[in-house]
Amino acid sequence: MENEREFAVMAEIRRLLADLDGATRVRIIRWLADLFEVGISSSTVRKLGIQQAGHETTGHWENNFPDLASLFHATSPAVESDKALVAGYWFQKFEAQTALDSQRINSALKQLGHGVSNITRALDDLTRRKPQMVIQVQKSGTTKQARKKYRLTDAGLRAVKQMINGEIKGEGIDETRQGR
């Protein structure tokens, strides 16, 4: 009985998504994944045959960076806040996360051997830059240690693209470049 209901729900979702363009499908699937707190990777999105919104139509970014380690190596972030920015870029653009968890970012960096000593401080630094690289989108709890969720701004996305292109490679994004 449960399998029949599951199949009916999946068939209905497929019917509802069938006439929508790829970018709209991605937004809906990302929203559902966030709503039900289910991670969805870029490879999963590709398997669904959906072009990810925000990616070059040639697939340039995806082909060059199959994992966070490749992106990290290409950008060579020098300071902790830039390390957090690059990891956040990976999760937001490639893993389709709309709200970034600081613990997940730092855990991924630790797996690469580049953990950040204080991830909250690094992300706070990115929120104080002008223009802001990251914004806080959610806070769970009322204490200072409450879990926070973040999202890269357009300026943050552009900064990582500049790092990828070698415009800021290896030096970090310093205060001068950000107009502080």
Secondary-structure topology with pairs:
Layout (H helix, E strand, L loop, with lengths): L1 H17 L3 H14 L6 H6 L12 H5 L3 H8 L4 H15 L5 E2 H10 L7 H10 L5 E7 L6 E6 L1 H11 L16
Antiparallel strand pairs: 1-3, 2-3
In short:
By secondary structure, the protein is mainly alpha-helical.
What features would you describe in this structure?
The model is unreliable at 49-63 and 174-180 (pLDDT under 50). The chain has a three-stranded antiparallel β-sheet with strand order 1-3-2. It starts with a helix and ends in a 16-residue tail after the last helix. Helix 5 packs across helix 6 (80-94), helix 6 (80-94) crosses helix 7 and helix 6 (80-94) packs across helix 8 (119-128). It has two domains: 2-47, no CATH class; 65-164, Arc Repressor Mutant, subunit A (Orthogonal Bundle). A hairpin with a 6-residue loop joins strand 2 (134-140) and strand 3 (147-152). With 180 residues, it is mainly alpha-helical. The longest helix is centred in the first third of the chain and has 17 residues, at 2-18. The radius of gyration is 18 Å and the shape is globular. It has helices at residues 2-18, 22-35, 42-47, 60-64, 68-75, 80-94, 102-111, 119-128, 154-164; strands spanning 100-101, 134-140, 147-152.
Protein traits:
three-stranded antiparallel sheet, 2 domains, single chain, mainly alpha, 180 residues
DSSP E strands, number:
3
CA-atom Rg in angstroms? 18 Å
- Listing every helix as H and every strand as E from the N terminus to the C terminus, the arrangement reads HHHHHHEHHEEH
Percent helix, as a range, is: 40-55%
